[in-house]
Amino acid sequence: MSTARAQRILDSPILPTLARLAAPGALLALFQTAVSIADTHFVGRLGTEALAGLALVFPLVMLLQMLSAGAMGGGVSSALARALGAGREDTAKSLVAHALVIALGGGLAFTALLLAFGNALYALLGGQGEALAQALAYSHVLFAGAVGVWLANTLASVLRGSGNTLAPAAALAATALVHIPLSGALTLGWGPFARLGIAGAALAYVSAFFFASALMGAMVWRSGLQPGRAHWHLQWRVFREILRVGAVSSVGALQTVLTAVILTGFVGSFGTAALAGYGVGVRLELLQIPLVFAIGQALVIMVGTNIGAGRGARAKRIAWAGTALAAAISLLIGVTVAVFPGVWLRIFSHDPAVLATGSLYLRVVAPFYVLFGAGMALYFASQGAGRMVLPVLAGTVRLAVVVAGGALVVAFSGPLSAVFAVIAAGIALFGALIIAVVQRSRWDG
Is 52 within a domain? Predict the structure, then answer.
């Protein structure tokens, strides 16, 4: 990146540049959506207990992705974009080395914690019997390979932060093409492959990410961002450039996943079929994250580069343009599935109880997806600006509302629809608060 690429981001019209940077990520989101649908479909063929086990683990898989790609990855992209926007290419190479050290530490921490405490956590969420056994079979394999996920997402963030969104999208899309048939073969025992059950889906997942990390590592090492020996001299000031956004964003990711974990526990009290139906329904909400992430990473790059160059007013205009686009996508998805929930749900299950719970969830929550999309887009824009404290506090408010509201519903034996209404209220509040925060904030560089 070069400085020429940074200059194009600074000088080109906002919407065409946003579309150009977001397009590879949007295409990648389609591949990632196909991967998630395929995995859930294959696991659904194993039965309702397997789907319930997948639902128990899914919030932790989401945490793995959000921390490595959206939170710390956002810190990496933001720090690189600001450095390159200011013309500091030597600093950018040091940032790459420090980012990889963070990735190794983050991946190993996930492996240690989930292998040690996964059983207790899934049981706390309401997992029992065969559903708990399925959750553990999936979790142990997937989190044993957490380093591969961290490395792949960190290297992708390095490439995006340099203004290159096409290369990581192409690498991850190629990985998806490997993942889908491998998942089906290992889960269901196609052809010469042994039938591994739900563990096969997890093995395909981590294998695909190690493949992606090798591809993108080669790309970074052939680029102008390859760190030299001097750049591996670890310094707190360089870590701080990443962590000033990444660490605070990680708090936001933890809150998001803690919200999902607590809600999974609340829904789990209504039985295995309810848990499976909720898991299928909520997956659509979470699958919007890759779509918004495509726009969000373009916002991180564009806002960060403009902030680095001292163009705060232009950075704010970029943020609102990206937010309008993300909100429109989420609105379309939300309205469609609220009116026709079966279009989504029958991909994964035909169990009447699962379909009933999933339909209820989508009818209550999906109309509020528009505020989810807007809030997430502004969250990423705030990463680019390096202003994360107030957006994270908006997530704290959402968490408090969900915990208090859900606990009251369960304590007074309220219906499952009331739990879903609490989820909808939390989403609406989160989006509205971040809109207000960004509207009032000053991005002066």
Answer: yes
Residue 174 covered by a domain:
yes
Separation in Å, CA 251 to CA 121, 271, 385, 390, 430: 19, 31, 17, 12, 15
**Residue 353 domain-assigned (yes or no):** yes
Q: Is residue 7 part of a domain?
A: no
d(C-alpha 217, C-alpha 226), whole Å:
10
Q: Apex CA 16: angle with CA 14 and CA 19, to 5°?
A: 105
Domains: count for the chain: 1
Q: What distance in Å separates the CA atoms of residue 42 and residue 345, rounded to the nearest whole number?
A: 14
The tens-digit pLDDT sequence of the chain (445 residues) is 445 667 788 888 888 888 888 888 888 888 877 888 888 889 989 988 898 888 889 888 888 988 998 789 888 988 888 888 777 888 889 999 999 999 999 999 999 999 999 999 898 877 888 999 999 999 999 999 999 999 999 999 999 888 888 899 899 888 888 999 999 999 999 988 999 999 999 999 999 999 999 999 999 998 888 898 889 999 999 999 899 888 888 888 888 778 877 887 788 788 877 877 887 777 777 778 777 878 987 898 888 888 888 888 889 999 999 999 999 999 999 999 999 988 888 887 788 888 888 899 899 999 999 999 999 999 889 888 888 888 888 888 988 998 899 899 988 989 989 989 998 999 999 999 999 999 888 876 5
Please state the pTM of the whole predicted model: 0.74
